[in-house]
Task: inverse folding
């Protein structure tokens, strides 16, 4: 199949490319290499074409017409909750107008299906855990709002224009190539600090939990969505809650180094816990996560250790 991956120079998108290519598909990347994102030219394999373009650019229509993709995997986004809170206008320009431009161009050039990187942030802080696909969506950040709006637009384009979709509502994704200098992605941020022998910052009491999913499992669900999950939105998580303190302890175990800890207050709007029940993804996409967190943290640590050329 011919597949366009928007945001393919980023953390998750680049692993999605790897999975598509390993399955024999032909991939083209569109990415603006946004300065605040995790996009790097080096994340795109040498023999994959990268079109340096913003998803809001109408010229995407020409790129689609030339490449004639059957699928668009839409991973390009303003991906930061904090930036969305500071600048909701910018967030909506990329995550809503950019998506609409992609959908318009996709539909006009005969794309069969759009796979959309949605988010657990569309649920905000739910009344009860785990979050399922039937949990009401009450996003508490502009980022969560624009991702939820994206799902509604996908339903509209399927109903009115026949453009199929699958939306994948990821939990907290981690793994190799995640930006260790970003403001999110606690696992890669901590690994960066452990390798540099610097203190790590733990907000709140460190017992807040998240549902961490290894990026190769995310790549596999993107592969499944090529053929399955027509018109569906799926919660994608492991069902396991892990605290920041547990991640810290795991890194101490792996490295033998007790990184100094700086304690900081709760970040405004930070949820206490998150946990996702991906039963529908298992039943309809045939997907289950296969990497548990201790192994995934080790694999991520070893990747960054190789990159930096040193251990602790
Ligand atoms: N990382 C997570 O835990 C997580 C969780 C839920 C959803 N998501 C979603 O998954 C997708 C990928 O996230 P990621 O963590 O890999 O982030 P990332 O920043 O590493 O990747 C996003 C890519 O999009 C590109 N991009 C940004 N703005 C663009 C624009 N205007 N035009 C073209 N390209 C643009 C960036 O250059 C980058 O390469 C995003 O849609 C994000 O919202 C991520």
Result:
């Amino acid at each position: 199949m011919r597949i366009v991956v928007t945001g393919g120079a980023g953390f998750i998108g680049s692993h999605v490319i790897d999975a598509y290519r390993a399955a024999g598909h032909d991939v083209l990347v569109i990415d603006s290499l946004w300065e605040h994102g995790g996009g790097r030219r080096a994340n795109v394999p040498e023999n994959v074409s990268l079109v340096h373009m913003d998803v809001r650019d109408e010229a995407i229509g020409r790129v689609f017409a030339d490449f004639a993709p059957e699928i668009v995997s839409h991973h390009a986004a303003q991906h930061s909750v904090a930036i969305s809170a500071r600048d909701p206008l910018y967030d909506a320009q990329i995550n809503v107008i950019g998506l609409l431009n992609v959908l318009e161009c996709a539909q006009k050039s005969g794309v069969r299906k759009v796979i959309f990187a949605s988010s657990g942030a569309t649920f905000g802080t739910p009344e009860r855990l785990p979050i399922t696909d039937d949990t009401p969506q009450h996003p508490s950040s502009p980022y969560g709002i624009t991702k939820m709006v994206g799902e509604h637009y996908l339903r509209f384009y399927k109903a009115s224009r026949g453009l199929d979709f699958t939306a994948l509502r990821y939990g907290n994704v981690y793994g190799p190539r995640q930006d260790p200098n970003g403001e999110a992605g606690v696992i890669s941020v901590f690994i960066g600090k452990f390798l540099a022998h610097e203190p790590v910052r733990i907000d709140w009491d460190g017992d807040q939990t998240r549902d961490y999913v290894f990026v190769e499992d995310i790549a596999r669900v993107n592969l499944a969505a090529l053929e399955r999950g027509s018109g569906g939105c799926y919660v994608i998580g492991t069902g396991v809650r892990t605290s920041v303190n547990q991640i810290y302890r795991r890194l101490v175990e792996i490295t033998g180094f007790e990184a100094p800890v700086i304690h900081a207050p709760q970040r405004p709007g930070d949820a206490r816990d998150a946990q996702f029940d991906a039963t529908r993804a298992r039943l309809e996409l045939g997907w289950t996560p296969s990497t548990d967190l201790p192994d995934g943290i080790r694999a991520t640590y070893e990747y960054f250790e190789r990159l930096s050329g040193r251990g602790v």
Summary: The chain has a mean pLDDT of 96. The pocket of nicotinamide-adenine-dinucleotide is lined by residues 7, 9-13, 31-34, 37-39, 54-55, 75-79, 94, 98, 117, 119, 170, 172-173 (CB under 6 Å).
